[in-house]
Design goal:
Shape: globular
Order of helices and strands: EHEHEEHHHHHHHH
Structural class: alpha+beta
Radius of gyration: 19 Å
Largest sheet: 4 strands, mixed
Strand order of the largest sheet: 2-1-3-4
Strand content: 5-15%
CATH superfamily of the domain at 2-82: Glutaredoxin
Number of helices: 10
CATH class of the domain at 2-82: Alpha Beta
Number of strands: 4
Length: about 260
């Protein structure tokens, strides 16, 4: 049995989808991010970084319970545990690993920051045009990378001719991009891939009995905003005013 520590986020969806694909027995433990439950002593014993998802495999290596945190690490662990969702060919296994690392280092952070400055900051009355445009641009760059890869792959998947953890890593962040101002129609190969993955039972599976207070962190109080994002709203307003007064050349986005 695997204990899945979960809330409704793209990273959480990665692991839920993998568990469904692998048909492994699991039990969901909701961690209400909006309520700050990820900072509890109980949860930080599982993930000291206070982020979901995390798992505890009660039947880990040598029959011992093992905790795994970070979505990319969890995907690799589940693939290794079951011998599935990874190609048998060694070169393709490394290609898959590269795309998982790419996702957690590029697509996830870019889209996550785009989400913050298009959804969560405005929800708190904060408008940061430079930050919003910067992370939307980086998210579009990541979409172009995926679109090119998928157009060249010759199959329905990122690597090889079967679903792998690379697809599972990238799909949940791709499916939510419309809410962050990204039009997938501009990336035809990516859109076709996303549509195909979305038809899988694992992508449609829902976690039952969502508790009140879980889900996307909108309509936050000032205290919740500071707890979740680490910045007091009053301080953020002052920094926004200071940013607006900077010379234009200081606001150019980095080229890397």
């Amino acid at each position: 049995m695997i204990d899945l520590y979960y809330d409704l986020t793209p990273n959480g969806r990665k692991i839920h989808m993998a568990l469904e694909e692998l048909e492994l027995p699991y039990e969901v433990h909701w961690v209400a991010v909006k309520q700050g439950e990820q900072f509890s002593d109980e949860f930080t014993r599982i993930n000291p970084n206070s982020k979901i998802p995390a798992i505890v495999d009660r039947d880990g290596p040598d029959g011992q319970a093992v905790r795994i945190f970070e979505s990319g690490a969890i995907l690799h662990y589940l693939a290794e545990k079951t011998g599935r969702l990874m190609p048998k060919d060694v070169a393709l296994r490394w290609e898959t690993t590269c795309w998982v690392f790419w996702q957690v280092a590029n697509q996830g952070p870019a889209a996550g920051n785009a989400a913050h400055f298009t959804t969560y900051a405005p929800d708190a009355g904060i408008d940061e045009p430079y930050a919003r445009e910067r992370f939307q641009a980086e998210t579009r760059r990541c979409c172009a990378v995926l679109d090119t890869r998928l157009a060249q792959s010759g199959t329905e998947f990122l690597v090889g001719d079967e679903l792998t953890i690379a697809d599972i890593a990238c799909f949940p962040w791709t499916r939510v991009l419309k809410a962050y101002g990204i039009d997938l129609a501009e990336y035809p190969a990516l859109q076709a891939w996303s549509t195909g993955i979305s038809t899988r039972p694992s992508a449609k599976a829902r976690v039952a009995e969502q508790p009140e207070g879980s889900g996307m962190p909108t309509d936050l109080t000032s205290r919740q905003y500071e707890q979740l994002f680490g910045v007091a709203l009053a301080e953020r307003s002052r920094s926004s005013t200071a940013l607006a007064s900077w010379p234009a050349h200081r606001l150019r986005p980095p080229t890397h």
